[in-house]
Design brief:
Elements: H1 4-21, E1 24-25, E2 32-33, H2 35-39, H3 45-63, H4 68-85, H5 90-97, H6 100-119
Antiparallel strand pairs: 1-2
Helix pairs in contact: 1-3, 1-6, 3-4, 3-6, 4-5, 4-6
């Protein structure tokens, strides 16, 4: 059974990911974007702030005692997005398409689900 603390951290991670990657929809499309895409319009500083905000999800993983490999994978997603963000135009498209924060929240949720199954 998952603890309240685990549920709270998963919920906060998902909310942060949604705010950063999918808070608003583009009308008549399936595309969503968030603060990450808006910050990505600011050269370098926006991508840096976006990466730092994305580390919040990794912090929740750390507090839940996630394995190092999972945290490295999550940081790899952040690093890849940061590198792509440094390329003009391509970085702006990547901010909408890659959605690193939602990926990382899903990785954390999947890991927690696997741990819960192991405990049963």
């Amino acid at each position: 059974m998952r603890s309240r603390e685990t549920e709270r951290r998963l919920q906060r991670s998902r909310k942060l990911a949604t705010l950063l990657d999918g808070a608003w929809g583009i009308p008549n499309t399936r595309w969503r974007f968030g603060i990450d895409a808006v910050l990505g319009l600011l050269p370098f500083a926006g991508d840096l702030v976006s990466a730092l905000l994305g580390l919040g999800i990794v912090w929740h993983a750390h507090k839940l005692n996630a394995p190092r490999l999972l945290k490295f994978r999550m940081m790899g997603n952040i690093g890849l997005d940061f590198l792509l963000g440094s390329v003009p135009v391509i970085g702006d498209i990547a901010d909408v398409a890659f959605r690193k924060n939602l990926r990382n929240a899903s990785l954390l949720e999947d890991w927690v689900a696997i741990q819960a199954k192991k405990e049963q």
